[in-house]
Structure formats: C-alpha cells, structure tokens
Amino acid sequence: MLTDIDIAKKTTMKPIVEIGQQLGLDENDLELYGKYKAKISYPSLKKLNEKSEGKLILVSAITPTPAGEGKTTVSIGLSQALNRLGEKAIVAIREPSLGPVFGIKGGAAGGGYSQVLPMEEINLHFTGDFHAVTAANNTLAALIDNHIHSGNELHLDPRWVTWKRVLDVNDRALRNVIIGLGGRGQGIPREEGFDITPASEIMAILCLTKDIAELKERIGNITIGFTYDGRPVLEKELGFEGAIAALLKDALKPNLVQTTENTPALVHGGPFANIAQGANSIIATKAALHMADYVVTEAGFGFDLGAEKFFDIVCPNGSLCTSAVVLVATVRALKHHGGAKLSDLTIPDTKAVIKGLPNLGKHLENIRKFGMESVVAINHFPTDTKEELKIVEDYARKQGFDASVVDFWSKGGEGGLELAQEVKRLVDDTICKMHPLYNWHDSLENKIKTIATEIYGAKAIDYTSMAKKDLKIIKDFGYDKLPVCIAKTQKSLSDNPKLLGRPENFLVTVREILIASGAGFVIPITGDILRMPGLPKEPAAQKITITNEGEIENLF
Asked: Is residue 545 domain-resident?
C-alpha cells in the first residue's frame, strides 16, 4: 500500500499560476514561493472583497482517537468531489504545526488521494508563517523583559508578566523555566514558560484579523502583564505594535496551493482547537468565499471544541454565515468510545460500535443547538466491516440526519460524490439560520456554564481558588464581556480524557482563566490541558528521514 508521501510524490501538480487562473487570479495577483506555492497579494485581496460570496461548509467530527479521524482528508476530498460535480469549490484549512508532525498525530495536510500539495513543504516549513508568528511572539517577549531591565517605567511586576514565549515544538521541558540568571547584565530573574506556537495569542490574532490596520490594533490591545498595584498593562503602552506587525506582513497573506486533484486550496494559520480557536484565518476564508461558489473549511478536533469556537468566536469576528455542517464519524472512534482498546480498533466489534454511538448522538444534538443543517460523513477505513458501517449509518438516520460512507483517502473526490450531492442539496435549499450559543454580553460565569452544560454535558462548573481570583480581575477591568475560548482535552466531551463515550453528571474544573484581549477572548483552562504538549515515547520523528538526494521519506 502506498503511503501518503508516496502518493504525493506520484501526483502531477500544476504550476501555481495555473491554479490561480482557475480562480480568476493572474500572476500579478500572486507572490510566488517557488513553482507550486504562492501568497495572494494585499491589492488582490482588496479587489476580491468587491465580489459576491459563495456558500460556506464546515467540516467537524465526533470525539477523535489520538490519531485523528481524517477530518482534513474529508475536507479536501469533499472540495474535490464538488468540483467533480461541475461546481466551483475551494478548500480552506489550517497549516500543520511541527509539534504533531514530529509527535504522534501527524501533519494536517490530508491523506491518500485527498491531500494538499506540496505535502512535504506544507507539513514542514511551508512559507514561513509559523516562524513569523514565533518570531513576532518572542520579539515582544524580549521587548517586555528589556523594558523591565531598562528602568521599568510602566512598573510591570516581573512576577506578573503574563506574556509567554513560544516554540513550534512539543517540548515539555520548556513548560516552566527560570530566565534572567547570570547577574545584573542578564536581565531580571523570573519564572517563565513556553507555549507551543499554535497557542500564541499572535497566532489567534493573525487568524482573526482582516487587514493590517486591524492587526496593529489587536497587537496593541494585548495584555502583557500587570503592574505592582494590579493594573493590566497593554502592549500599546510599550508602543511596539508597528514592529511586531511588520514581522507578520507576509504571514498575514493567505497561501494558495492545490490538492491531489488540482483543486485550489488556501492553507493559512494554525491555532489548535483544544487550546485556541482551532480554525484557519478569516482572511483566507473570506478570500475563498469571493472566489468560489462553495468553500469547505474545517474546525479542529471534535464539534465540542473547534466547531463551538467557530460559531461563537470566528463567525462573529468574520461576519461569516455557515450554510451546513459535515460531521465526520468513524467506526474505529466509536469502538474506542465503546470501550475497545486502541490496539484492538482494527478488530471487528459491533458491540463496541453500538456502545460508542452515544458520543455521535451528543455531537448531533450539539449541531442543532446552532440552528445548523448537517450530514454525517462516515469515513471508511480498510478494516471496517459492512455491518459496522451500516450500524453507524442507520443510527445517524434515526437521529434525523442523512449519512454517507466516504473513502476520500483511497479514491479521492470520487470516494464521496454521494456526500457532495447531499451537501450541495443542503446548502442550496437552506437559508443560513446559524446562530451562536450564547450572548457575548452575558456574564462570564454563564457563558462558561452554557458551553460546559449544553455542549459538553456537564452538570456544574468548579472553579479553583486561582480561577476565582482571575474571575475577579477579569470583571474589574471589563474583560468579562469577551467571548470564551475554553481550553479542554480533545479526548473526551468532558475535561477528563479518561471519560469516553457520552459522560454524564461530571464537573468541569476551571483551574485558571487567561486574558487574550488582543485576540478578543478569554481562555478558561480546564482539567489538566497543557498549552505546551510533550512528545510520546516513540515520536514520529524516529521514522522521518531525508535521502542524500534531498528527498523526504516516511513523513506519513
């Protein structure tokens, strides 16, 4: 069986200029990064805004296994299937992070015959967007520490600097560190820590920003820490928003690439859904909507994480209205939620599938809470039996949802033509009735409770003493009217990764609440979720290599 990278290397790509021409873009609209990658220029983005918008389709999923359920593959495959039906479709997705690429989950470029290309470059350094975010984040960190070292006119409390450094690597050793050691000339010693780059507020800002003016404004509104008397300090008091934005000048432009079937793809931005908003950039999604009749995008992890944040944070910020949801379900994930061991997911087990169905049921309930029409895409794996697939399909239909088995991995767009037809019917026949789950102006406690009880299924919220202190600070300084971006494990509907299926009567524990005032939301941290992941015992990096001729091997 060919691997993803083998298939990618065998695919004949078109020059990116030709892909641009499919969208009405000429060479002057593109800034080329070699033969097969380009960024769309700012003047061209401005011209696109004058065109009418197409329909937006969101791909989400049930609670995944650690390896993921092929949501990106389905997103890419669906865009290819729509094009096979003679429609003009684009896929708009996030960029991969090096953490998962070298860790356990793999990249985020799809798989098999439904990938975005050039796969190796997209999964590694791509056009340098992640490095730009890392540099911008850490430049601000250096400027903050320099300000403290050089007189500290703003009276920042070194023990209360909230701006962390970031790195696009899974590195548990950097979660908590001491900086500034070595004497008076080396800075002020203080506790510090690293987050992974997708958790950076700079990444969140990049993906919520529509132009350079807004980029600078959001950077200026970042809360970098607190003074000795407890007043929050914003970045604009330092005055470096112009310099930080300058580092992001090119990173803000959407990246144009193509799929294995030469369907245009915008791959831009990369916040994780378990610790940030989990969607690609608004600027890329808006550009895609102005260039195509149908735009397929995705929200990270399960519907409880990425999709909830997409509807409650991303859509209001981007004035986006989603026309339909495609919910990805797999037999193997349902077996996992039904009690099967991860090592046994390839073994036929109808009892485990049936036992795991309530997880699917809860996500389907949640879709209706946003007023959305939806269809279930049952992502087929080679070890699935016909009986297992039929169980899932019948269950979805009993819940009032159409369902379709897809095999985008081995068949490309052809593997989901039935799904594409059903999605097209949903989109064409439906007036956008999407609505958020809560009102931003509600109290912070009610917003957290609404998400936890309505979407996760919790019975109550428990706040630690630290979280209660954070709540008071947030209220005192007017941050309580911001939307909520909950950081929670992706492995369970609850905040406990061991509670599989559809857990009930559980508490959600909020241990602290971070202020992301530049991005425009607050981040309740629940359970044991970490913003800097660690590597597994046997990371994917053990297999990845490069030949003497410069060819990447074993990337997936």
From this structure: no
